[in-house]
């Protein structure tokens, strides 16, 4: 057992943090308030290699493992979750292309992400298909050598700024197995019949773009099918463990950011003639926040490590990490606001934003309740 | 062509700190690459990137093993390899003066035989601001200090430089190679190390050299300067706050300025 990070991993953490402090922190409040996608910041991040860092080297990535991805995510989210998500989500959905795509698909769709020219998304959820992913109804039908797609996708990250999406479609409504009959198809945003409607009024991660996508007789060539027809859902499931670990890392980052700001403020703010950090009530809060964050981090790192080293224990661990870390993030952000008092209730302090941002980690990539269902299912050996 | 960049890891002190004898206690220190050296490194890497010929960029530092982490970040930004000079004889030295640094760096220059040496204008720990020029004199290179724009004509053997002089005056001048240029902040925009660069840097060489490897002995690091005392300067609060509306504040400011002699004939 080895708990230390390698020299390279420490260097990643340091340089990503430096980038975030210099390029993200000064503009975070502005993009949050305006609900604006930070295209310029994402472009700068891509110069450093932060977009699609886990892509294979031959397609412009660094071939990062889950642990390195987690470190990058943690540092970005500690500074600002909204812009952090824009950067780390630039290659959402690419896992399917990397693992199941053709060489031609990889050439076409991967390098533009790492070069900062394009942004992509994973379109799974629908108005009626949230936690129950198998109720996806967006339909793709074969017509000659084309797929014709009809349906609506909901809550799609990068929806109105993305250049292409890996869309979960129903291709065989008559399939017997509830997990069969779905296929992943790449749809470019400039296809006729595609439209995206940005969803505004989000509580947190407001710099991140979220949209409703409508497919109205959208035609794409048959070579846009990723992997095997009818295997879409099973292909997607292969990455749940990784994507959940990634959300756990987001949550650890948010908790870390909240801890740091609370500690700074506790040292600085004076009441009753001394810094509030001298009060045991505040000291205990700080101790608990840092302890919980470290526990969440260790669970997340173990899950990330398992992605690469121990598949057997992975599924339960990834859900545990996601469930636990997202709770820690919301609790710790809450306490950070508390430590700031009134100052934490307005947006001239970052903790106000972190408090709003933390909540999403309990919702997307499977809600807290769904994670608990999975953990229990694994424990009770109920299988899939 | 070969460009040698001198780099230094410097300690940055936290806002609140305590002294421990002749130094700031270690727990209050953060180590980072000297700010000016960031710009020198970037300039060297840009020269290599923009040149059609092969340009090797070598970083040299005088520093303990700990400094490798910082030096490796320069490698991640595109420096090809590094040389790190350290020796037991340096362990006990509180303050390495310009003369000692010059002797060590001269020996490295002799070894490496670069066409161009870039240094930072100064290091933000001891701020002597003299090492670059002193080195140039010792190795008999041409030099220009406080360079804030550089256009290298490697084939012509000339560096066209703009130097920052006192009082906002600037000088444009030509310096024949081989030369030492001390680089001012703002000459370029230092890049972030890319994630790929960080990965590649892990396998780049940082060659450790002891004094004996450079043909030197402990006498080379003997310093004419001795650190006798370290203390926190008394801070005097010299800020005056004016009360009242804008008109009243302006009137008060005018009074103060007049008292200070502003407007007097
Ligand atoms: C900002 C944002 C970005 C998103 N990005 C994407 C994206 O890029 N791509 C994408 O495809 N989707 C995305 N989503 C969708 C997200 O994954 C879903 O919102 C999430 O899976 C929950 O689905 P739902 O909203 O329909 O909630 P529902 O499934 O309707 O859940 C409502 C409540 O019921 C509970 N519940 C549901 N089923 C069960 C059960 N079996 N047992 C116990 N409790 C249950 C839930 O836990 C929750 O508390 C995003 C969502 C948001 C808000």
TrEMBL record, chain A:
Residues 230-380 form the Acyl-CoA dehydrogenase/oxidase C-terminal domain. It comes from the Archaea. Residues 6-117 form the Acyl-CoA dehydrogenase/oxidase N-terminal domain. Its cofactor is FAD. GO terms for biological process: branched-chain amino acid catabolic process. Pfam families: Acyl-CoA_dh_1, Acyl-CoA_dh_M, Acyl-CoA_dh_N. InterPro entries: Acyl-CoA_DH_CS (IPR006089), Acyl-CoA_Oxase/DH_mid-dom (IPR006091), Acyl-CoA_Oxase/DH_mid-dom_sf (IPR046373), AcylCo_DH-like_C (IPR036250), AcylCo_DH/oxidase_C (IPR009075), AcylCoA_DH/ox_N (IPR013786), AcylCoA_DH/ox_N_sf (IPR037069), AcylCoA_DH/oxidase_NM_dom_sf (IPR009100). Keywords: Branched-chain amino acid catabolism, FAD, Flavoprotein, Oxidoreductase. Belongs to the acyl-CoA dehydrogenase family. This is Acyl-CoA dehydrogenase. It comes from Haloferax marisrubri. The lineage of its organism: Archaea, Methanobacteriati, Methanobacteriota, Stenosarchaea group, Halobacteria.
From TrEMBL, chain B:
Gene3D superfamilies: HUPs. CDD domains: ETF_beta. Keywords: Electron transport, Transport. InterPro entries: ETF_a/b_N (IPR014730), ETF_b (IPR012255), ETF_beta_N (IPR033948), Rossmann-like_a/b/a_fold (IPR014729). Transmembrane segments: none annotated. GO terms for molecular function: electron transfer activity. Pfam families: ETF. Residues 21-218 form the Electron transfer flavoprotein alpha/beta-subunit N-terminal domain. Belongs to the ETF beta-subunit/FixA family. PANTHER family: ELECTRON TRANSFER FLAVOPROTEIN BETA-SUBUNIT, ELECTRON TRANSFER FLAVOPROTEIN SUBUNIT BETA. This is Electron transfer flavoprotein subunit beta.
């Amino acid at each position: 057992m080895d708990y230390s990070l390698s020299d390279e991993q420490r260097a990643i953490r340091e340089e990503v943090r430096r980038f975030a402090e210099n390029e993200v922190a000064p503009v975070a409040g502005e993009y949050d308030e305006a609900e604006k996608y930070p295209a310029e910041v994402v472009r700068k991040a891509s110069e450093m290699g932060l977009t699609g860092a886990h892509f294979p080297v031959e397609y412009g990535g660094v071939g990062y493992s889950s642990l390195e991805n987690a470190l990058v995510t943690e540092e970005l989210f500690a500074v600002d979750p909204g812009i952090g998500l824009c950067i780390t989500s630039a290659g959402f959905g690419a896992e399917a292309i990397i693992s199941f795509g053709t060489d031609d698909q990889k050439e076409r769709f991967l390098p533009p992400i790492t070069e900062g020219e394009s942004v992509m998304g994973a379109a799974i959820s629908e108005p009626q298909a949230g936690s129950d992913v198998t109720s996806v109804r967006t339909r793709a039908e074969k017509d000659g050598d084309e797929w014709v797609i009809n349906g609506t996708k909901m809550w799609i990250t990068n929806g109105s700024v993305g250049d292409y999406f890996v869309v979960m479609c129903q291709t065989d409504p008559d399939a017997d197995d509830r997990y069969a009959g779905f296929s992943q198809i790449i749809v470019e945003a400039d296809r006729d019949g595609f439209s995206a409607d940005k969803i505004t009024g989000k509580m947190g991660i407001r710099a991140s773009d979220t949209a409703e996508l409508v497919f109205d007789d959208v035609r794409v060539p048959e070579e846009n099918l990723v992997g095997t027809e009818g295997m879409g859902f099973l292909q997607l499931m292969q990455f749940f463990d990784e994507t959940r670990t990634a959300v756990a890392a987001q949550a650890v980052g948010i908790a870390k950011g909240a801890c740091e700001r609370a500690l700074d403020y506790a040292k600085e703010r004076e009441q009753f003639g001394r810094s509030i950090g001298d009060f045991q009530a505040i000291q205990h809060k700080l101790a608990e926040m840092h302890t919980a964050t470290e526990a969440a981090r260790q669970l997340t790192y173990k899950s990330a490590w398992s992605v690469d080293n121990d598949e057997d224990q992975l599924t339960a661990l990834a859900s545990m990490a996601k469930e636990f870390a997202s709770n820690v993030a919301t609790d710790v952000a809450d306490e950070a606001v508390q430590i700031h008092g009134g100052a934490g209730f307005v947006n001239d302090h970052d903790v106000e934003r972190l408090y709003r941002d933390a909540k999403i980690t309990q919702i997307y990539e499977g809600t807290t309740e769904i994670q608990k269902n999975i953990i229990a299912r694994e424990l009770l050996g109920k299988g899939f | 062509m070969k460009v040698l960049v001198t780099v230094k890891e410097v300690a940055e002190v936290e806002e609140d700190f305590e002294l421990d004898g002749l130094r700031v206690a270690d727990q209050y220190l953060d180590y980072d690459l000297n700010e000016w050296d960031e710009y020198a490194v970037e300039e060297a890497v840009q020269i290599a990137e923009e040149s059609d010929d092969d340009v090797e960029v070598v970083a040299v530092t005088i520093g303990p093993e700990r400094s490798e982490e910082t030096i490796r970040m320069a490698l991640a930004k595109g420096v090809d390899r590094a040389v790190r000079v350290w020796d037991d004889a340096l362990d006990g030295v509180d303050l390495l003066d310009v003369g000692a640094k010059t002797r060590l760096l001269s020996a490295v220059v002799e070894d490496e035989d670069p066409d161009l040496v870039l240094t930072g204008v100064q290091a933000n720990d001891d701020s002597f601001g003299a090492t670059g020029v002193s080195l140039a004199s010792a190795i008999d290179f041409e030099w220009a200090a406080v360079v804030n724009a550089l256009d290298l004509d490697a084939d012509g053997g000339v560096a066209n430089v703009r130097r920052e002089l006192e009082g906002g005056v600037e000088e444009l001048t030509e310096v024949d190679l081989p030369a030492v240029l001390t680089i001012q902040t703002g000459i370029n925009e230092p890049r972030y190390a890319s994630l790929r660069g960080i990965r590649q840097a892990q396998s780049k060489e940082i060659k450790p050299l002891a004094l004996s490897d450079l043909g030197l002995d402990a006498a080379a690091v003997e310093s004419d300067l001795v650190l006798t005392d370290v203390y926190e300067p008394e801070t005097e609060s010299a800020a005056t706050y004016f009360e009242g509306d804008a008109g009243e504040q302006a009137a008060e400011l005018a009074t103060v300025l007049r008292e200070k002699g502003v407007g007097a004939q």
